[in-house]
Amino acid sequence: MIEIRNGDGSSSYIEQGQPQESLLETLQENGIYLPAECNGKGNCARCQVRFLRDAPEPTAKERALLTPQALREGVRLACAVRGVREGSLQIAGAGEAELQVLTEGIPCGSGGRGKDDRTAGRTTRYGVAVDIGTTTLAAVLVRLPDGVRVSVASAVNGQRAFGADVIARIQAANSGKGEELRARIRADITDLLERLFAGADIAPEQTERIVLVGNTTMCHLLRGLSCAGLGAAPFTPEDLSLWRGTAAELLGVPWEAEAVVLPGISAFVGADIVAGIYALGMDRSDSPRLLLDIGTNGEMALGCRDGFLVTSAAAGPVFEGGGLSCGVPGVPGAVSHVRLVRAASPGGGGTERLRFAVETLGGREPVGLCGTGVIDLVGELAASKLIDGNGTLAEPWFTEGVPVSEHGLRFTQGDIRQVQMGKAAIRAGIETLLEEYGRRGRGESVREELTVALAGGFGYGMDVGQAVRIGMIPASLAGRVALAGNSALEGAVRYLCEGESADARLEWIADHATELNLAMQDAFDERYLAYMGFAEI
For a disulfide at 70, which of 66, 146, 179, 507, Cβ 3.0-4.6 Å? Predict the structure, then answer.
């Protein structure tokens, strides 16, 4: 038996599966989910466990990815451990329980809005809005029909155990793990709802409606739909229409609240973007607006009452702290902002060492860089010419990495390459979308009248000036960017209040949105390569 030591001092026990099965797979089968952004391929080093005794001999991969001290302390990668029958271990990464998730949207139009209100009482009707993100979940309990917020809650999406991005989740589902993925997200949402109800001191039965949004993959997994069509061209979803049923049907809970999953547009532009367009009133605007939501995918919608052109650029997990040697999600201690301070080396000789002033979430000791800190750091390095136009670090930092803090954090040349690929995808997507939209009737004037709504948690905390500095957002748009908060969650809240009267409007948005497939655009490929560098700085 393998003993799992819990944070509260208690223990649980599991049996290792087949000899060829990894410890990661065994933990998943027993309902224990670790981050595994690479889907168990042994590249991300996120699925760390610490053996308290009987630690297995480290593999070559573990020796390459873990520090000698960590190895001595019994830290191993769950995806690399096989054939262990006995042992005692702790699960690393518990700090993710404190992950900071944006639950606030920017009020955008008519409808009751308010601060958190826990005084509504037990005679009031309630509704719940849920945003199912690839990395995190956010939910809000509101009073009906005025939409006043009563309680909010957030959590990590436990599906991260099957990979960091939608591609990994699709691959996992198509390899036979679809039911596991569905069970995980249903359990996560149920736990989230129970925390909401407890925080407001109400019974689940007082909830009349639950509205859920998310990208197309998340909605498919929740509904138990096949992801086979999402994994290969022509990328055909099973169902994008608005779904209406009960919470019992959707989540397997004993509540008869109505459940609604809002409609999507395409395989890679989902209900979260439809909800954002709806919340921001873009479908009623006379002038075009660009909705930009940057996460593992850069989802974009450009348009107005005439219709929309939408697309999705695969940025990868870098802007959520994934794929980096020192990257972390938005947990306490994550470096969220960075400013470079140059100082002469104590030895003199004309050389310089680097010192940074850093700001961390919660004011904690730095544990890694989250997406906004990454943007700041690369912007500072580029502005100071410590990376050249190709993105190459000057020595000695090319070899040693950039010392971000006195706590051992170093940002490597490989990390910069990950940022380059992510920011190039976003910028090339924006430029290609603008060009194609203009070609379809708006002309070059679209840039002159365009405003940008930057949605999502990453965008909410991002320094737009630094994003412009590294070339991720065009300089011409810098002064016209407004923060939209969690516009997807805001759209779900709005639907809670308006209900079926909004169905026609949502369907109109989905029907009048045309997807631009960036993979089919030669101009996108050319721009992607051009925007990898920092020549504009």
Answer: 66
- Rounded CA separation 484/455 (Å): 5
81 and 102: one domain?
Answer: no
Structural domain boundaries, residue 357: 326-411
Q: Which residues contact 426 (CB under 8 A, 6 or more apart)?
A: 294, 298, 313, 315, 472, 473
Tell whether 125 and 48 lie within a shared domain: no
Q: Give the Cα-Cα-Cα angle 141, 212, 282 (nearest 5 degrees).
A: 100
**Residues 467/536, Cβ–Cβ less than 8 Å:** no
386, 393 contact by CB (below 8 A): yes
Q: What stretch of H or E contains 219?
A: helix 216-223
State yes or no: pLDDT of 108 exceeds 50: no
Q: Is 155 part of any domain?
A: yes
**HSE-CB for 358 with a 13 A CA cutoff:** 29
Task: Please check whether residues 136 and 8 belong to one and the same domain.
Answer: no
- pLDDT tens, residue by residue, 199-246: 899 999 999 999 999 999 999 999 999 999 999 989 999 999 999 999
CA distance 193 to 154: 10
What's the predicted TM-score (pTM) here?
0.83
Residue 420 to residue 415: CA distance in whole angstroms? 9
